[in-house]
Amino acid sequence: MTDASAAPPAPAAPGAPVGFDAPEAVAARETIKTRIGDKEFGAKLIAQDAAARAEWDALHKAGYPAPQRITSTEDVNNQAAARNEEGWNNFLGWVRQRCPLSEEQVAEIRGGVIREDLHNWAREQKDRVIKDRGFYKKLMEGDRATTRDWELLKLMLSLRPVKVA
Length: 165
Known about the structure:
2 domains; disordered N terminus
């Protein structure tokens, strides 16, 4: 059985270098925060004390590691894939705030396709609700359920329909 009290590590900040969340880096950043408030240490830095300057530089080097250097096409592709994945995750998070999605729906959205029968249903629903003055009034008033239904219809119609074999 796993320990429920152990919290999972916080995700790295977007674009942060690999070692940014390492315990040593976190500790170095905490020490920097402490040193900022230390007047005696600050006076040594201003006076160009070599030991204080070396400590300050070492803390920054440990607390803020340099990003990974791009040395190949594979590195560029990995970074592009990571940005693409982050974009999808942000978009799907936005959609999930507006309407619930099943894993099948998420896979369809990520693939850019939707079953043809569902696409046809969404087109029929859109045609129906556009003619419905009550629906339009609720949509303009910001009714949550109506807005959710409209957002879902727009999302479904933005995907390419495919026939299921």
